[in-house]
Design a protein that fits this description.
It contains no helices and 11 strands. The protein is an all-beta fold. The chain starts with a strand and ends with a strand.
Length: 114
Amino acid sequence: QLQASGGGLVQAGGSLRLSCVASGFSFDDYAIGWFRQAPGKEREGVSCIARGDHSTNYKDSVKGRFTISSDNAKNTVYLQMTRVKLEDTAVYYCWARVDGTDYWGKGTLVTVSS
């Protein structure tokens, strides 16, 4: 199970941190990350931590503004969002790929206001 939290209303230029706690498996062994879905748009990948070398990847539009990290002791992955923009408004979903199967948490809504 994946439980995301931390969404809310934030002004453009501000910061927000999303958290996702996993139960039933260890983040250390699997790919984990964040997707988002804006109103009327398809779900898209935002950032992820790769299995194995734990390298990080980011969607181009969030590079330099968002940072993904994990605390394996807490089985928690974070998405630190800074200098948010109106276009970052979306429902954010925690994701993990475990043994070839994708798991999704319930989304957490991030709304960026002007």
